[in-house]
Design a protein that fits this description.
With 896 residues, this protein is an alpha+beta fold. It has six domains: 159 residues, 2-Layer Sandwich (Dna Ligase, domain 1); 105 residues, 2-Layer Sandwich (D-amino Acid Aminotransferase, Chain A, domain 1); 116 residues, no CATH class; 153 residues, no CATH class; 149 residues, no CATH class; 143 residues, Phosphohistidine domain (Glucose Oxidase, domain 1). Helices cover 44% and strands 14% of the residues. It has 33 helices and 26 strands. Strands 16, 17, 18, 19, 20, 21, 22, 23 and 26 form a nine-stranded mixed beta sheet that branches. It has a six-stranded antiparallel beta sheet with strand order 9-8-7-6-10-11. It has a five-stranded antiparallel beta sheet with strand order 1-2-5-3-4. The C terminus is likely disordered.
Length: 896
């Protein structure tokens, strides 16, 4: 058959033919060549599409118009002739016509269902019409949106069309060679329904679902849509064996579409990689021989984005520093300790050794109960899993490790001094930390000098500053626990939480209040105020960098950034630009503050009021005890007030004194490598490891490496769900073990009081705004989020526990908060009327009518306008219940 390159038989194609056959066509050709059962057919190549697009004058910058033109233009004659000839060669009859784009079935994006499929197409003219419609579907709304969401370059994009003989299907469906819901690699999941499988793929019918353990060749679960199973166990096992062969051929977990004909013969009509599975650590052992439990460091830090490679490198060095301190140095410090692993460009800690130790397990469950409540529930369920049973004889090693860490770090001596003289000891130790972290370089340092200083600072400095920093937090927590024990049933949890309101010496709170005072000063300056109201934050940030803001605005912002410019959203990643480099987020926060006009609700007034309430509560609690116990209670409550605010100090000082100087050391190295053409631009240095940076200095061209890393980074930033607890067989333990939430949302009570107001769902604080009084609903928070807290009426957070960052800051500001709320950002929409019970840990939601969301991409997941009812119309003024003496926060909380 001569097709002039416009049509290719499936059997002539291979996996490398994606540029001419698209992902689907190339994969089917590979299956045919490998001997898998695939219906006969051919591909109308991307060359044919380009001929048609040229004839239709398609402009990729106008996708809607592109689709219309393709539909309105006849198939070019040479293309039509080739298609007719290929159709006759497969004996005419009904065929399936399926789109196969060059940007689909990729490692990071499958494009499943984004373009169109036509089944039962019969006759040459109907086939040509279906081909034309398939071409047009390359530019349909959902496909364009998917490409842009996955940051896929549309330059040169083209679409092939797969044409295959229809299978007279008795049943059909989809098969996943790993569980797509829980992520478990050791399961095959099959969904099947009678007849054609397209209805299953499109979700138009309720299929049977079969789950099979392929190693045991056993169906372990079945959910039937009707009284009779579509597939018997033999058919399920045969399909699973076929699926595992496909997986073995392609070397990755597969999403396979199949049909079973009237003679019970299975046919494969598509295979593509499962792109939603969370990656496993490269070092993960065989889960059948040595199953492991990995906990997300990112989740613990409230930072769900991926790390840049140099950001990972910094943590690997920090981990090696601590491991060396306790006598377990890794062979290569730059790769980190073996218990610290990378997966999906994020960090995980291997909890398995501690979890298999009775002493260690108890500590883990207590720690997670305070820091990450949802993970504590997951670990409690895993405690019953025989794979992670306690092993005898491990307690002394775990206990000894803890004693070794405390003893060698001299933490006990620091704790005693802080208990004796909290204010003077705190100031002393912070001065010592600053002195220890100073970086010394030769007078004319080379790039290698800078890399050595970078490595040395992360390996040698942390073990010297950590005892001082962690003791500040430890003494505050010990004092709070002691006070709680002394009071017993004489004080409620809410009363004890009131004691820590508006605590002094919290650097994040101090930063936020300074930002508020800056907003007040700029409000009094006509030019500054006009700039904030009339110009976008991005425009103002660009003006700041060129020194062209209004005079007072330029001077005041520079002063703030001199003090806090080392901070950022996602600041624990050394590779993330700091506010001093891009102050857009800070300027947006200032503009948000100017909308708060009620002086009584100003953050500094609220903070001062919180401090008075805390002092009043201390006096109330002291009156409830008598004798020596009262003196002891007074001692510990005073230490709570003096030191509990230092909860934020360790991260603040590490970012200020380690990460920011680390960036300063690397910047000139990046500039030198970019000037030499080893990387494209200076900030590419953050997409290399230390060893790679040294290779580049030695002459290696790493531009391709950086480009690949940046693509991976962009792809990982679009990942919506990060496992809290990941098992080495791929199981997302939270999804597999905890029931899906129903009814009211529940989490951990974090800050007392109750508030009802419109919700504002924000996934990233970059460019986001929140109206005064709205409920902030977020997946997690780090210090970069906290400027939003100052005007929020309440907080709902998917990740965290009583001592997580968001919970601590919410208590400081006196806003009701519930954390560890599973699915909050999906089950709440912007504009919904939300009630937050920060004492009971319950979040109630009253739906509002949906509208199109405004604002920066990624800021708001959805927006809803309140329906015209009496209940929702009151949403402009949130109703709040707080501890005695706290006035409600109000503001113009009308959803946009």
């Amino acid at each position: 058959m001569s097709d002039g390159g416009l049509v290719r038989p499936l059997g002539s194609l291979r996996a490398t033919d994606g540029p001419i056959a698209g992902g689907k066509g190339a994969n089917l050709g590979e299956l045919v060549a490998a001997g898998f059962p695939v219906p006969d057919g051919f591909v109308v190549t991307t060359g044919a599409y380009r001929r048609a697009a040229e004839a239709a004058s398609v402009d990729p910058s106008e996708p809607a118009l592109a689709a219309e033109r393709l539909l309105a233009t006849a198939v070019p004659p040479d293309v039509a002739g080739a298609v007719r000839e290929a159709y006759r060669a497969i004996d005419d009859g009904p065929v399936a016509v399926r789109s196969s784009a060059t940007a689909e079935d990729l490692p990071g994006a499958s494009f499943a269902g984004q373009q169109d499929t036509y089944l039962g197409v019969d006759g040459e003219e109907a086939l040509l019409d279906a081909v034309r419609r398939a071409w047009a579907s390359l530019w349909n709304q959902r496909a364009v949106a998917y490409r842009r969401a996955n940051d896929i370059d549309e330059t040169g994009l083209a679409l092939a069309v797969v044409v295959q003989r229809m299978v007279d299907a008795a049943a059909a469906g989809v098969m996943f060679t790993a569980n797509p819901v829980t992520g478990r690699r050791g399961e095959v999941v099959i969904e099947a329904a009678p007849g054609l499988g397209e209805a299953v793929v499109a979700g138009r019918v309720e299929p049977d679902r079969y789950t099979l353990d392929p190693d045991a060749d056993t169906v372990v679960a079945r959910q039937l849509a009707g009284d009779t199973a579509v597939l018997d166990d033999d058919a399920v096992r045969e399909l699973a064996r076929l699926g595992r062969r496909v997986e073995g051929h392609f070397g990755s977990r597969q999403d396979v579409e199949f049909a079973i004909d009237r003679d019970s013969r299975p046919w494969l009509v598509q295979a593509r990689p499962i792109t939603t599975l969370y990656p496993l650590p490269a070092s993960a052992p065989d889960p059948a021989l040595d199953p492991r439990i990995y906990f997300s460091v990112n989740v613990a830090q409230g930072f769900l984005d991926p790390f840049t490679p140099m950001g990972l490198q910094a943590f690997q060095l920090l981990g090696s520093s601590q491991a060396t301190r306790v006598g377990r140095p890794p062979p290569d410090p730059t790769t980190g300790p073996e218990l610290l692993v990378e997966a999906g460009s994020r960090l995980f800690f291997d909890l398995t050794p501690a979890f298999r130790d009775r002493f260690g397990r108890g500590i883990l469950l207590r720690l997670f109960g305070a820091a990450e409540a949802r993970s504590a529930e997951v670990l409690a369920r895993l405690a019953d899993d025989p794979r992670f049973a306690v092993r005898p004889g491990s307690r002394p090693s775990t206990a000894g490790l803890g004693t070794n860490l405390l003893g060698r770090a001299s933490t006990l001596r620091v704790v005693i001094r802080l208990l004796q003289h909290p204010d003077t000891a705190r100031q002393r130790y912070l001065r010592e930390v600053e002195r220890i972290t100073r970086v010394e370089l030769p007078s004319s340092p080379t790039a290698e000098d800078r890399l050595r200083a970078f490595e040395r600072s992360f390996l040698e400095v942390p073990v010297r500053i950590w005892p001082r920093l962690i003791s500040l937090v430890l003494v505050g927590q010990i004092s709070w626990l002691a006070a709680r024990w002394l009071l017993g049933s004489r004080a409620s949890d809410d009363e004890l939480r009131t004691v820590v309101r508006s605590a002094p010496h919290n650097p994040t709170t101090e930063m936020d209040l300074e930002l508020w005072r800056l907003a007040v000063r700029l409000r009094d300056d006509v030019d500054s105020r006009s700039a904030l109201f009339d110009r976008s934050p991005a425009d103002l940030a660009a003006a700041y960098r060129t020194g062209t803001l209004p005079e007072r605005f330029q001077r005041e912002l520079a002063s703030f950034l001199d003090r806090y410019g080392f901070r950022a959203v996602g600041e624990i990643d050394l590779g993330v630009p700091r506010w001093s480099e891009d102050p857009t987020h800070i300027i947006g926060a200032l503009a948000n503050y100017l909308r708060l006009e009620d002086a009584a609700l100003a953050p500094d007034a609220q903070f001062a009021r919180g401090a008075r309430e805390a002092e009043a509560m201390i006096q109330t609690l002291l009156r409830r005890v008598r004798g020596p116990r009262r003196a002891l209670l007074r001692f510990f409550l005073r230490r709570v007030r003096a030191l509990v605010g230092t909860r934020e100090v360790p991260k603040f000082e590490i970012v200020r004194l380690l990460l920011e100087p680390g960036r300063a050391l690397l910047r000139p190295v990046g500039g030198e490598l970019a000037a030499a053409g080893r990387i494209e631009r200076s900030d590419d240095i953050y997409f290399l490891s230390l060893s790679e940076a040294r290779r580049a200095l030695a002459g290696a061209d790493l531009r391709a490496t950086v480009a690949d890393r940046r693509r991976t980074y962009r792809r990982e930033k679009t990942r919506r769900h990060i496992p809290r607890v990941l098992l080495s067989d791929g199981t997302d333990a939270e999804l597999a073990l905890l029931p899906a939430p129903e009814g009211d949302l529940r989490g951990a009570p974090a800050s007392p009081g109750q508030v009802t107001a419109p919700g504002r769902v924000i996934r990233s604080p970059a460019g986001a705004r929140i109206e005064p009084g709205e409920i902030l609903v977020a997946p997690s928070t780090d210090p970069g989020w906290t400027p939003l807290f100052l005007t929020a009426g309440g907080l709902v957070m998917e990740i965290g526990g009583l001592m997580s960052h968001g919970a601590v800051v919410a208590r400081e500001y006196g806003i009701p908060a519930v954390v560890g709320v599973a699915g909050a950002t999906d089950r709440i929409a912007t504009g919904d009327r939300v009630t937050v019970d920060g004492s009971g840990g319950v979040v109630s939601v009253e739906r509002a009518a949906p509208v199109i969301a405004e604002g920066p991409a990624g800021a708001d997941r959805d927006a809803r306008r309140p329906a015209p009812s009496g209940v929702v119309a009151a949403a402009a003024a949130p109703a709040v219940s707080r501890p005695p003496g706290s006035p409600p926060r109000r503001g113009s909380a009308t959803p946009r």
